[in-house]
Amino acid sequence: MPGRDDQWFEETFRANVDLVRRYARRRVAASDVDDITAEAFATAWRRRDDIAEGSELPWLYRTCALLIANYRRKGVPTPVETVPELPDDLDPEMSALQDDLVRRVLARMSPRDRQVLVLHAWEGLQGQQLAEVLGVSRGGADAALSRARSRLRELWADVQDSADV
């Protein structure tokens, strides 16, 4: 693709680095966020001709997800001293996860449903961008989001009912 030079990479990096770092921060230990982020952008540079114009962020999210999956398969334990006692008070998403009901509902969801909801709610992906990250068609992404929302409603009702007991 013409234009996939240093300037393209710099613009792609500046526009997306904070979003990719935030995506990684929610999924890996704090000590690994920069490594995952750097590897995602290094891969983007190497594969720059494979990234569709306008799809840079979904492509980076998908690459980041694959890197995180590889990281988790390695089974590298997180030393206790690197796990923060309290999440960052400035991060509203992490604050929301502290809520016991939310954590219980998310824990009861399938990994796929949880991924779809998190990509939509936290990362703001919808439509074609969500489809690209999930590696499915637009219709498949819409259907996955609809199913995940339905399951969320069911589980939320179950958890709230059991909390009232």
UniProtKB/TrEMBL annotation:
RNA polymerase sigma factor 70 region 4 type domain mapped to chain residues: 101-152
UniProt domain RNA polymerase sigma-70 region: residue ranges: 13-74
Alphabetically ordered keywords of this record: DNA-binding, Sigma factor, Transcription, Transcription regulation
CDD domains hit by this protein: Sigma70_r4 (cd06171)
A biological process term (GO) from this entry: DNA-templated transcription initiation
GO molecular function, one term: sigma factor activity
Keyword Membrane: no
SUPFAM superfamilies with a match to the protein in the record: Sigma2 domain of RNA polymerase sigma factors, Sigma3 and sigma4 domains of RNA polymerase sigma factors
Pfam family, one: Sigma70_r4_2
Family stated for the protein in its record: Belongs to the sigma-70 factor family. ECF subfamily.
Protein name, UniProt field: Unannotated protein
Organism this protein belongs to: freshwater metagenome
